[in-house]
Leucine rich repeat containing 17 (Paramormyrops kingsleyae), 431 residues
Amino acid sequence: MRVIMALFVLLAFSSVQSRRTGQRGGRGRGRGRNRMGAIKRFVSECVEYMESREKYLDCQDQQLTIVPISWSRDTFHLLLARNRIQGLRDNAFGQFPHLRSLDLQQNELTRIEKQAFAGLDQLTTLLLQHNGLHTLSEEVLLPMPHLRFLRLYDNPWHCKCSLDTLVRTLQVPSNRYLGNYAKCAEPPRLKGEKLKRIRPELLCPHLEENILQEPQDDKVKIKFDAVDSCHTYMFPTPLLDCQNRGLTNVPAGIPPDIVKADLSRNKIRHLRPKEFVTAKDLRSLNLSSNGLDGIEIAAFNGLLYLRELDLSNNSLQHIQYGVLEDLYFIRRLVLGGNPWVCDYNIHYLLYWLRLHPGVYHSGLVCQAPPEFAGWTVRDYVRTYDGKCPEDQMSGQDDFGGEVLSETMKQENGILLGPRRGRKTVKGMRLS
Ligand SMILES: *[C@@H]1O[C@H](CO)[C@@H](O)[C@H](O)[C@H]1NC(C)=O
Ligand SMILES: *[C@@H]1O[C@H](CO)[C@@H](O)[C@H](O)[C@H]1NC(C)=O
């Protein structure tokens, strides 16, 4: 039969420490299980096994809402059926470059970004049946040249213009096993028609109707026109200069070719989700001196290539859980001049930095609570580990991973006994 190796796959985060133990297989599993009660919602248990020399990662029925993180990159088959995943972000499977099959059936998917399957150039089977998808662009399929089996049935497909490219692709004769049995749910006149058979012209009957339909799709509302209100320069790098313009919002319609955007010295207090989605090429973003005090999750969505982010001289006390996840290629974070509060809420930022050692950052100094005011965050974290001098000496970076995970656990109220014994914990949520 198959060798079953228990593996805890972290939902979102893992310290370097847990990475090491995770690879050691089932060691300490019992202890982890005992704690499952307390941290159940945050830790998922996936099972990894080999069959016919191919590695499977089985995370079915785990109530997952996002794609789990795995440290083994050689997974061939990823089973995510019957979870609660609602959307797939660009590069959602970047850590599974060798996948041959991906089972996402019976989730709650309604949204799949165009590059969600980027990098899956070996994938042959993709199962998306029994979800809530109503549209999907053909572009989503482009990164998967070897796709042979695609299941799309039992999704409420809206047979209108936005589905046109997908339908035409499915109908190419060589794509015989792509999209069989999938049917239109809307509009009423096309209900029940099969995507494989429907005449593509019916999806887009009049040009006028297309234009009317467009705005229904998840479009950014134009609040402000970046090009009218700010200066743009094309040389030497395409720059949008909105410095000191009294802006209270991120201007809409940042042109997609802009590489550098300077929004410093304005009055943008709050960043809402998807403020920068049009600025696909942005490498550098300056939000310094705005009085910023809140950044919502997905605010940086779409800034896939951002390398430099200046958040200095604002009113930030912490960074909310999840906010930095969209910044795949960030290299420099300027954080000084903010009233960082060194308590539980700062841990997401610390943890994220620990997991991204290539990110140069500056200015992370506690301003509160009073007992830590003026401390660097590194020193704040070390206070939790006074008993273990060897870690202090080895901690070259801002905060050693072990030191930090100790902090987390204490604040989670999970008492783990002697520190060498706690290596069995594989993950926890930070907020
Ligand atoms: C951002 O703008 C501020 C002032 O407008 C400037 O001092 C700072 O150097 C800029 N940051 C970056 C990373 O260019
Ligand atoms: C910090 O921001 C405030 C406005 O929020 C501004 O008045 C001040 O000049 C800025 N300080 C620096 C050093 O840029």
Observations:
- The two ends are 40 Å apart (CA to CA).
